[in-house]
Write a structure and sequence with these properties.
With 82 residues, this protein is mainly β. It has a four-stranded antiparallel beta sheet with strand order 2-3-1-4, with helices on one face. Strand 2 and strand 3 form a beta hairpin. It contains one helix and four strands. The N and C termini lie close together (9 Å).
Length: 82
């Protein structure tokens, strides 16, 4: 089964480029099958990682950034291939 983990954060005012760099530099304990990083208006950053694992597997995720870098807590979702 393929599992996709999604991590989305909104940067504090004017800190979008810094959040993007921070997200791209975060290492994971294991290498996913695939990892992509996206941006959107309002300085949002989205990271999706794909894993060959069970839906409820214990998988490494990106951490919470420093509170001053974001406007709110990170949103996280987990999806399984259909």
């Amino acid at each position: 089964m393929t599992v996709a983990l999604m991590w989305e954060a909104r940067a504090a005012e004017g800190r979008g480029p810094e959040l993007l760099t921070w997200a791209k530099e975060q290492p994971l304990a294991h290498e996913p099958l695939r990892r992509e990083t996206f941006t959107a208006p309002q300085d949002r950053v989205l990271v999706i990682t794909w894993w060959d694992a069970a839906y409820d597997a214990d998988l490494p995720e990106l951490p919470e950034p420093d509170p001053g870098l974001v406007t709110r807590s990170v949103h996280r979702w987990r999806f399984a291939s259909a």
